[in-house]
Backbone:
């Protein structure tokens, strides 16, 4: 069954500049021509230069040793079919999400957009908001975490240290408790740095491993094999039009706990 989402476009003013805030949300069920599905891929937003999709926990952003088709290739097929394009189709990867993580991912449809978005991600001009479900209640309802993360390539895992150790990288994020059920807590997380498994590692270090994340200490896996970490929102100035774009990724529609948490916010 195809889920339906809406697109809301409104006009705002900041000082003397006019910009558009474009959001997608599951709260009003209005279909638009921007949402298409190929192999269950959901397109949240698309224009001439960028495309954003709502990744599931089973999808990969870019090709890896599994040989599974990555979203970058699925998007190429989608663009080729939708626009009847001959030859090669361009789709640039601007950032990544771990395979077990769901949520919004941005891709570039032109080389110009790719170059500019890569720089915007590097300089942290793209603001990303994550939602994480944890079983342990944080000691403080909101706060900032600072650690030094050391990556273990063989184990594909990072370890958080309170003090600097050789080859570690500084990592920082802020979190806030925004909802809870009888047994779980929903944290909103904002990254200040982009380290390997940063949110997973730092929340576990705080004593709040993400639901389903066996690698970082949660007791049980999730039925779908993913973890309860969702890239909820991305906000940035469009690299070409200079409009303010905000894209909200609805939570996984087949997960009752996610749906409950979304309603509680």
Residues:
């Amino acid at each position: 069954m195809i889920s339906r989402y809406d697109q809301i476009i409104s006009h705002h003013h900041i000082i003397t500049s006019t910009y558009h805030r474009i959001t997608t949300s599951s709260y009003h069920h209005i279909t638009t021509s921007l949402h298409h599905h190929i192999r269950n891929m959901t397109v949240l937003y698309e224009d001439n230069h960028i495309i954003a999709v709502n990744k599931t926990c089973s999808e990969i952003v870019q090709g890896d040793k599994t040989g599974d088709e990555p979203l970058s290739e699925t998007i190429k097929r989608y663009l080729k079919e939708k626009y009847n394009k001959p030859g090669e189709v361009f789709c640039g990867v601007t950032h990544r999400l771990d395979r077990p993580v769901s949520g919004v991912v941005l891709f570039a449809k032109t080389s110009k957009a790719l170059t500019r978005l890569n720089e915007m991600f590097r300089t942290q001009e793209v603001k990303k908001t994550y939602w994480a479900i944890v079983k342990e209640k944080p000691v403080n309802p909101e706060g900032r975490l600072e650690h030094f993360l050391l990556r273990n390539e063989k184990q594909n895992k990072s370890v958080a240290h309170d003090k600097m150790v050789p080859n570690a990288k500084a990592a920082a994020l802020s979190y806030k408790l925004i909802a809870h059920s009888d047994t779980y807590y929903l944290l909103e997380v904002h990254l200040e740095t982009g380290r390997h498994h940063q949110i997973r590692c730092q929340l576990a270090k705080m004593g709040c491993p993400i639901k389903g994340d066996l690698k970082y200490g949660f007791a049980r896996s999730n039925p779908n094999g993913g973890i309860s970490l969702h890239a909820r929102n991305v906000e940035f100035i469009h690299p070409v039009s200079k409009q303010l774009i905000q894209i909200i990724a609805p939570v996984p529609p087949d997960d009752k706990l996610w749906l409950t948490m979304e309603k509680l916010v």
